[in-house]
Amino acid sequence: MTQTLTITRPDDWHLHFRDGDILGETVPATARVFGRAIVMPNLTPPVTSVALANDYRDRILKAVPAGVDFQPLMTLYLTDNTTAGDIAAAAASETVFACKLYPAGATTNSDNGVTDPTGIYPVLEAMQEHDVPLLVHGEVTSADIDIFDREKAFIDRYLADIRTRFPALRIVFEHITTADAADFVLAHDSHTGATITPQHLMMNRNDLLVGGIRPHNYCLPVLKRREHQQKLRQVAVSGDPRFFLGTDSAPHAQGKKETACGCAGCYSARAALPLYATFFEEMDALDKLEGFTSFHGADFYRLPRHTDTVTLARETMTIEQQVMAGGEAFVPWMAGETIPWRLA
Ligand code: DOR
Ligand code: ZN
């Protein structure tokens, strides 16, 4: 049995660092393993301009531990007021690598998101022209659509049309949760990619609801039924370059998760790589781990693959029950669970 596993340094292609004192926890947790991360812009207020992205990037860089080489890849938050000029400015910058479409009301801090995706087609046209990738939170928000059907409804109502109208636009279908989303990606060429989180690979909605409500497994898009999970597991280990790592690590303080109306998001950054390794081993596919963690995303974003490596050791690790950050307690995803891999 392999006792250590050395792979090219991975990147996290979907991540929430948040802002303020918590950066002292979230940035080192990611930067000690991942060489780069696509940083989500859903702050309050959201990151809607290159100037705001640059300021946020500076705050992140201040939290990178000394001697660690880490590159935050910034994103802009699309609103109903984003202009083609904003896209040109993003494309001309050396700091912004993509724009994020949150349908208004879909998730944490998405109130300023796009109310009607068909209303931003001029912006998508500019993104296609300037070759700025579109990152999509693919869920409709209408009250008449059941929460478990919101991803498929987004494909049918919006994404299929966007894909057809803007064939050269690179689109990342973020944190996919359904077989429908996996099939959508499979049906298109290399301009469509998808990130998959550890929780959507390792859990299904039973892990959220059976035997009691488990708020630390609550994220959006919500965990789906087992058949969907199985499809995600299959495509993740398939070696298909359209699928890559994106943790969606998204911390919320313990008191905001363990409450009558708990926030969506799983804080997984510290253990993310060992968690993915555990999953790939369960699938008897450790040989496919490096492509998923370290090659496919870099190739999609047309960035160089890293030339250094990280090593995992087959030694059990128990995930912390609690992490303190900025004076508040956070419960990591899978707290208290023991997994067979750790960082060497
Ligand atoms: O679970 C989630 N948490 N899903 C998202 O889309 C946003 C994220 C957050 O920012 O907390
Ligand atoms: Zn996210």
Order of helices and strands: EEHEHEHEHEHEHEHHHEHHHEEEEEE
Unreliable segments (pLDDT under 50, ≥5 consecutive)?
Answer: none
Q: What is the overall number of helices?
A: 12
Beta percentage is: 15-25%
Helical percentage:
25-40%
Separation of the first and last Cα atoms: 16 Å
Identify the quaternary structure here: single chain
The gross shape turns out to be globular
Mean pLDDT reading: 97
The overall strand count is 15
Computed CA radius of gyration, to the nearest angstrom: 19 Å
| Strand arrangement, major sheet | 2-3-4-5-6-7-8-9
Which ions, cofactors or small ligands are bound in this entry?
A: (4S)-2,6-dioxohexahydropyrimidine-4-carboxylic acid, zinc ion
Specify the biggest β-sheet. 8 strands, parallel
Keyphrases for this structure?
344 residues, alpha/beta, 3-stranded antiparallel sheet, 12 helices, 15 strands, 17% strand, globular, binds (4S)-2,6-dioxohexahydropyrimidine-4-carboxylic acid, binds zinc ion
Walkthrough of the structure:
The chain is α/β, with parallel strands linked by helices and 344 residues long. The protein has twelve helices and 15 strands. The chain has helices at residues 23-31, 50-62, 84-92, 121-130, 150-165, 179-186, 198-202, 206-209, 226-236, 254-257, 272-282, 289-300, and strands spanning 4-8, 12-15, 36-39, 71-77, 96-101, 134-136, 171-173, 192-196, 243-245, 309-313, 317-318, 323-325, 328-330, 338-339, 342-343. β4, α3 (84-92) and β5 (96-101) form a beta-alpha-beta unit. The mean pLDDT is 97. It binds (4S)-2,6-dioxohexahydropyrimidine-4-carboxylic acid and zinc ion (ZN). Zinc ion (ZN) binds at residues 14, 16, 40, 248, 250.
